[in-house]
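Entry 14. Ran structure prediction on the chain below.
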Amino acid sequence: MRIRLDHGTPVPPFEQIRAQIALHVAAGRLIPGDRLPAIRSLADELDVSTNTIARAYRELITADIAEAAGRRGTRITAAPPVAHDVAQRSEEIEAAADRFALAAQEWNVATDEALEAVIIALRRTSNERSR
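Output, structure tokens:
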């Protein structure tokens, strides 16, 4: 299981970790019974505090994706409520974002300008759908 943190995003690290683990579960890369890394070792690997990892794990437990197994660690639940199509959708969105980011870089568009363009496009398409 690989987790990457983007320190340039406003999304808090615990949420990035939670979302990526949920995505691994949805994609079948983590299956029921799989043990998540120990909090301390994952914190060291990602260079974040143990509280950050603990919060991500608590969120996963609250969502019934993981369960605390005491001294045996945190494990993926027997029937996590994450569907495969959620993972596929997330991967498609990430791929589209990557394509846009590459195009923005090729055109030498500043990050703020690129983000503003995406926000405007999302609002425009949302308004068009509501008509």
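The domain at 13-76 is CATH 1.10.10.10 (Arc Repressor Mutant, subunit A). Will compare against last week's run tomorrow.
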